[in-house]
Write a structure and sequence with these properties.
Elements lengths: L10 H29 L5 H28 L2 E3 L3 E2 L7 H5 L18 H18 L1 H4 L5 H23 L4 H4 L8 H19 L4 H5 L6 H20 L7 H28 L7 H15 L8 H25 L12 H19 L27 H29 L8 H6 L1 H5 L25 E8 L2 E8 L2
Antiparallel strand pairs: 1-2, 3-4
Length: about 475
């Protein structure tokens, strides 16, 4: 007799966890590669895609070798960060999943460590990928390759342990359902600091910052939206009622936020016209804003977050870059500090008001109380202070770590590409372009009287990553 399942494993929970992780992975590759690649100038499309895919690869390598246990393992430096350890052995992939500091505070996991590690990896990977939008079009590619592993180690792993791994802010009761702080606030802060340190794009590039493909943006945005079902729906770790509520609330807040932005564009923007890019900004605000709250608020709370988050970010986006230092001095190319930084901050603070104790994450049995959240509007004013304290920690720590990492890298190599490469773009940096121009047809020499007849006619084509030369004899 054989069994495919260990006694503790539930196939439904494990299947949902791996499916949710795959949906989140799709949010990075291809969604953000296509979304960002369509927003940037055409000369930076390849560079953007390369940064997305390389960050995904580097994060996974770092994650399994040491960073996962720093975020979700046993305490190492007090309640600040976990002890680095690898998970590439058999136990790291097939043993029962566990977060040591959360034992007894939530149900025991019903899937392997590998499912937990991969699910948390795709969250880690998308965070630096998100703030590519802040530094795109000028950061050196090799600097990015050095920066990502260091940032995952010293910034992201600490964020995860503090709020999700049972660390300091988790023990205080901070609520961050799926990453409004750990991911989006962190991405906004680090992206903004990095943009300030790397410096602005070329002036002519800032003046002509026109998207190269709106249809690609639509594809990327659509995958991003639906992928978020795994982002928020997978975070209860069980395929239960709270996962369903998180998915419904995610889509509801996003729909409301997108329409809020579109209506504000129609009523208050300079041109008073609805734009697709504006709608995408609103969509992202809704997705980000509901992320820290998805399983803690009811449908009314989700609608409120969609309206408030989108409206506030719209106002800040219209005002801060024009008049307020340092936002008017830093070239945050795609506005990551707004659609992720501020949107995540507002969403996390709104949990402090709107968390509904009737929304049950884990059902208590016997004398054990159910796991819920409660905000100011439900008789728990202290929650707002806890949310603010956690947010401040993320802002200060991530800003400091990003600054230090880039200062150290700058000792060895400039952070910014030379102006000559900036002027050309992908062709100069990677030797390939997203939209190659067609070669003009070769003239048929010898068909015109008096013209010399060449011995050979040459044609170059790219195949398998190399350039081959095909030679034709002309008779």
């Amino acid at each position: 007799m054989f069994s495919p399942y260990a006694s503790w494993l539930t196939s439904g929970d494990n299947a949902w966890q791996m499916t949710a992780a795959t949906l989140v992975g799709l949010m990075s590759i291809p969604a953000l590669a296509v979304l960002y690649g369509g927003i940037v100038q055409r000369k930076w499309a390849v560079n953007t895609m390369m940064m997305v895919f390389s960050a995904f690869c580097l994060t996974l390598i770092v994650w399994v070798l040491w960073a996962f246990k720093m975020g979700f393992g046993s305490p190492w430096i007090s309640t600040f960060v976990g002890k680095p350890s690898t998970i590439v052995g058999a136990a790291g992939e097939q043993a029962r999943a566990s977060i040591p500091l959360l034992k007894g505070l939530m149900p025991n996991f019903r899937f392997p460590e590998g499912s937990l590690a991969y699910f948390q990896f795709v969250f880690a990977a998308i965070t630096p990928i998100l703030f590519i939008g802040s530094v795109v079009g000028r950061i050196k590619f090799k600097v990015w390759l050095i920066f990502v592993p260091l940032w995952i180690t010293f910034a992201y792993a600490v964020n995860a342990f503090l709020l999700w791994g049972g660390g300091y802010w988790a023990s205080k009761g901070a609520l961050d359902f799926s990453g409004g702080y750990v991911i989006h606030l962190a991405a906004g802060v680090s992206g903004f600091v990095a943009a300030a340190m790397v410096g602005p794009r070329l002036a002519k590039d800032r003046e002509k910052a026109v998207p190269n493909n709106l249809l690609f943006i639509a594809v990327g945005a659509g995958i991003l939206w639906l992928g978020w079902n795994g982002f928020n729906g997978g975070d209860p770790y069980f395929a239960g009622a709270d996962a369903t509520a998180a998915v419904v609330n995610t889509n509801l807040a996003t729909a409301v936020a997108m329409m809020t932005w579109i209506i504000m564009d129609m009523g208050f923007s300079e041109k008073k016209k609805p734009t697709f890019l504006g709608g995408v900004n609103g969509m992202i605000c809704g997705l980000v804003g509901i992320t820290p709250a998805a399983g803690y608020v009811n449908g009314v709370g989700a609608i409120a977050i969609g309206v408030i988050d989108s409206a506030l970010v719209w106002i800040l986006f219209a005002y801060l870059p024009r008049k307020v230092w340092p936002f008017n001095k830093v070239d945050d190319a795609l506005g990551v500090v707004y659609t992720h930084g501020f949107a995540g901050l507002f969403g996390g603070l709104l949990v402090g008001f709107l968390a509904d104790p009737k929304m049950i994450e884990y059902i208590g049995l016997g004398k054990t109380s159910s796991v819920v959240g409660a905000g100011v509007f439900y008789g728990h004013p202290k929650q707002l202070l806890i949310q603010a304290g956690a947010a401040l920690t993320i802002i200060v720590w991530d800003g400091l770590v990003t600054y230090v990492i880039l200062r150290v890298i700058k000792f060895f190599t400039p952070l910014r590409m030379p102006d000559a490469e900036l002027a050309v773009g992908d062709e100069a940096v990677h030797g390939e372009v997203a939209y190659p121009e067609e070669e003009p047809e070769v003239a048929d020499f010898g068909s015109v009287p008096g013209e010399p007849v060449p011995e050979h006619r040459h044609k170059e084509y790219s195949q398998g990553g190399g350039v081959e030369r095909e030679t034709e004899k002309v008779s």
